[in-house]
Design goal:
By secondary structure, the chain is α/β, with parallel strands linked by helices. The protein has 26 helices and 28 strands. The protein has a 7-stranded mixed β-sheet with strand order 6-5-18-17-16-7-8. Residues about 370-385 and about 390-400 have low confidence and may be disordered. The structure holds ligand MGD (2 copies) and molybdenum atom (MO). The site of one ligand MGD has 34 residues, from β17.
Length: about 775
């Protein structure tokens, strides 16, 4: 059980000023972010938010805040916020004909339709959709299961291309949950703790933590470590801020990451840069790996990736310095070669001897995140009217989550449906039919789905759809029959943590620090209320109030012995985890030293991948629509599009209503190299039509040398709240996901083409 450490010198959680203002400390977990817990000092007068500042007593964010939190007031009191539950007749989907109703009517209507669906079509016709992060991401799977009693929990991110492929590579080759760059996040005195060592190099691969703070690696920690001497090697097709400060920037052609990974291994082994003792004692399959990469020379990779061969050699040499660390980002997932890239890069750091040492790659404790790595089997269904028993008895409910028969590997990492298969189900009504959908924290036609218009058409066939959101989104306009107003994190009790507590870090309290706006409720409250109505006699611990529920959650996630109220008193508690857990028997259920794999070693040759029917060793897959694979397509669409590089001013499709953020970044942008722009007579600020074989979108040109001539980088998640709601706020004019092909994914069902699509561009007419 990790012990939480509190900063006893921190300010109290409420400080009263003379003018009646109170400064209330709390932690942030979206809107507009993952559930990471940046520290906020919220100035409140008469229950109203006056302003937000960074909390310097927060041990991790240390007073720093991004522009999305700093503009919280604009978000919370925005005139477009949904204030009340609403209904709309099914035949009016798409029309702005919502009518205010009471919470009772809204919840009763949801339950009525839910029960009708279960009676007529069975539990598998009930589907629960949720987006990433915010607080909801944590409760999605559990709520689908415990409240709605279904395993059809949907996160329709093509090829499950967000963190799950990286986690699969980690679990199936190293037996570890998320492996993160060691940034001293659990130590109260952070980088000054004598146990911590500053990494010599950090390899940042397809990640931009300054903007994204992904899942627990805060961007500012990279800068803090750079100030202490850490150097960077950046693998990115764009020259971002980090790349300009890197010792080496390997400006890779999008989608070719696998080739670069193979060449780094080739040099590390060929030039004998690896840690023989570690390889001997703790790894499995080294000789096979060496054989596999022996022909993957830097010269070979250079032709594929566009990266200079000498730079590849140099990178492999520098990264062998001890300790060095790895930060892999979303670009690793958004590539059908994803498992191999993850496996190969982790193998590289393993053979260098950087695993689980101070300043190296911190291995995660076995996963406890609800829905992850639970094995699902087909068992008998819950008897009618019986309360679902929850995740512990997951296999008892309904059948398999949809898509696991087609992609069985998914059962070994995640209890969701297979994302891409959901579209097939919506279009073909096979093998199951969805008749009831509950959607929360997710704007399915703006951002996450590939081929969003097809998703919209498919979802329109679903008999009943309820959506909980903060704003009236394109999805609400297109699809909702019932709309529920969601509370922001300043208006509710909640909790946050990094990397689902599998890494060292923190539990932060989200405190209800301002008066609620309208009749908004938190998602957790809505779920508890639905549960209460469905199962009035339930005796399950924790379901009586959000505070009790959070207490139980924290215990369940990482066995933390603290109540919500105690955490809220302190606002944030940190916890440490040990280094070299594999030597101490901390990674395996049997308590023996070693790694949590079949061989007890890091599997450079993965028995798990082999048993799942994939190649046990890393390999390179040429992108399916590259000039090499499809010269016919390349002739028409010679440019490669990468998309979704994060912006400070938005979180996915959020924040587009916020005038001060739109002032900084007013429209969806496409980064174009000056030479390419000149060829097409495209000037700065002009509207550009980007086309692929699968669709098109319009974005504003930003002409910049940060991308090479044959690459463009497009924003994702755009819609224009100022436009006509009945034209769905122009979402289909600007959504780049229309350009991406459906279900072009890796052999085991992971990775998609978000960051590697063949396109052409022209001035928009
Ligand atoms: N502000 C903000 N923060 C966010 C989000 C947001 O929308 N806005 N979203 C959150 C979510 S859900 C996630 S998953 C994380 C993701 O956060 P990150 O993992 O940091 O991912 P991205 O910002 O998508 O991309 C990182 C880098 O990959 C580069 N890249 C593009 N294509 C390729 C390629 O083919 N190969 C390589 N090697 N690099 C490539 C891009 O140029 C970019 O600099 O961010 C989270 N944080
Ligand atoms: N082209 C391209 N597409 C991408 C990506 C990319 O890199 N390129 N990245 C992908 C990735 S990694 C991800 S994770 C997905 C993200 O996709 P999603 O997580 O689905 O993001 P959004 O579409 O912004 O939908 C989130 C909705 O939740 C609402 N919301 C915010 N806070 C709350 C809350 O507390 N409660 C409720 N009920 N609602 C809330 C917001 O208003 C918003 O409408 O996008 C993916 N899409
Ligand atoms: Mo994501």
């Amino acid at each position: 059980m990790p012990k939480l450490h509190f900063n006893e010198n921190a300010a109290p959680n409420v400080v009263k000023l003379d003018d009646g203002t109170e400064i209330r400390r709390t932690c942030a977990a979206g809107f507009g972010c993952h559930n990471l817990s940046c520290g906020l000092k919220v100035h409140v007068k008469d229950g109203k938010l006056i302003k937000v500042e960074g909390d310097e007593d927060h041990p991790i964010s240390q007073g720093r805040l991004c522009v999305r939190c700093l503009t919280a007031k604009d978000y919370v009191y925005h005139e477009d916020r949904i204030l009340y539950p609403m209904k709309r007749a099914r035949e009016d989907r798409g029309l702005d004909k919502f009518e205010r109703i009471s919470w009772d009517e809204a919840l009763d209507t949801i339950i009525e339709n839910y029960q009708k669906t279960v009676d007529e079509y069975g539990i598998d016709a009930v589907t629960v959709w949720c987006g990433t992060g915010r607080e909801c991401g944590q409760i999605h799977f559990q709520m689908a299961n415990d409240v709605f009693g279904t395993v059809q929990a949907v996160h329709p991110n093509g090829g499950w291309s967000c963190i799950v492929p990286r986690m699969a590579a980690m679990l199936w080759t190293m037996g570890s949950s998320y492996i993160e760059a060691d940034n001293a996040i659990g130590f109260p005195d952070r980088y000054d703790d004598p146990r911590w060592e500053c990494p010599k190099y950090m390899l940042i691969w397809g990640r931009d933590p300054l903007r994204s703070n992904p899942d627990g690696l805060f961007g500012h920690s990279i800068v803090d470590m750079m100030k202490r001497g850490m150097k960077l090697i950046v693998v990115d097709p764009r020259v971002n801020w980090l790349a300009t400060r890197a010792d080496l920037h390997l400006q890779i052609h999008p989608g070719t990451d696998g080739a670069l990974m193979m060449a780094l291994l080739n040099v590390a082994i060929g030039e004998d840069l690896y840690d023989h003792e570690f390889v001997e004692e703790w790894t499995y399959g080294f000789d096979e790996l060496a054989e596999r990469v022996k022909d993957c020379t830097p010269e070979w990779a250079s032709k594929i990736t566009g990266v200079d061969a000498e730079d590849i050699r140099q990178a492999a040499r520098l990264l062998s310095e001890k300790p060095s660390t790895l930060s892999m980002g979303l670009a690793v997932d958004q590539n059908p070669n994803t498992l191999q890239i993850g496996h190969g890069l982790l193998s590289l750091f393993a053979i260098y001897g950087h695993m689980d040492v101070p300043g190296g790659c911190f291995m995660g404790l076995p996963p406890t995140f609800a829905g992850m790595a639970e094995n699902v089997s087909m068992e008998d269904s819950t008897a009618e009217g019986e309360e679902p028993e929850g995740l512990a008895k997951f296999g008892k409910i309904g059948c398999n989550p949809a898509g696991h028969e087609k992609y069985p590997a998914l059962s070994h990492i995640c209890n969701s449906t297979h994302p891409d298969v959901n579209l097939d189900i919506l279009e073909t009504k096979s093998p199951v039919e969805f008749h009831f959908a509950y959607i929360f924290n997710h704007n399915p036609i703006s951002c996450m789905t590939i081929q969003p218009e097809r998703y919209m058409e498919g979802l329109r066939k679903v008999d009943f759809i309820a959506i909980a959101d903060v704003f009236k989104t394109p999805a609400i306009m297109a699809l909702a029959d019932i709309v529920l107003p969601a509370a922001t994190f300043l208006e509710k009790a909640g909790y946050c943590t990094n990397n689902n507590a599998s890494q060292p870090g923190q539990f932060g309290a989200i405190r209800n620090v301002i008066d609620r706006v309208g009749e908004a409720k938190s998602d957790m409250e809505i779920m508890l209320e639905l549960h209460r109505r469905l199962y009035p006699n339930s005796k399950k611990p924790g379901w009586a109030s959000p505070e009790d529920f959070i207490t139980e959650q924290m215990k369940g996630i990482r066995d933390v012995d603290i109540t919500y109220d105690e955490l809220a008193e302190h606002v944030i508690g940190q916890y440490e985890l040990e280094y070299k857990k594999y030597e101490k028997g901390m990674l395996r259920a049997d308590g023996q030293p070693g790694f949590n794999t079949t061989t007890g070693r890091i599997e450079l040759y993965s028995l798990m991948l082999e048993s799942l029917g994939d190649d046990p060793l890393p390999y390179y897959i040429e992108p399916k629509f590259s000039a090499v694979s499809r010269p016919d397509i390349a002739e028409q669409y010679p440019i490669t599009m990468t998309s979704g590089a994060r912006r400070f001013t938005s979180f996915h499709s959020e924040n587009r209503q916020i005038a001060r953020l739109r002032e900084i970044h007013p429209y969806p942008t496409v980064d174009i190299n000056p030479k390419l722009a000149a060829e097409q007579d495209i000037t700065e600020g002009s509207w550009v039509e980007v086309e692929s074989p699968w669709g098109s979108a319009q974005l504003v040109a930003h002409i910049t040398p940060i991308v090479k001539e044959d690459v463009i980088s497009c924003d994702h998640g755009w819609w224009l709240p100022e436009k006509d709601p009945e034209h769905l706020f122009d979402v289909f004019k600007h959504n780049v996901n229309q350009l991406i092909p459906h279900e072009e994914i890796g052999p085991l069902g992971f990775g998609a083409h978000y960051k590697c699509t063949p396109v052409r561009i022209k001035l928009a007419s």
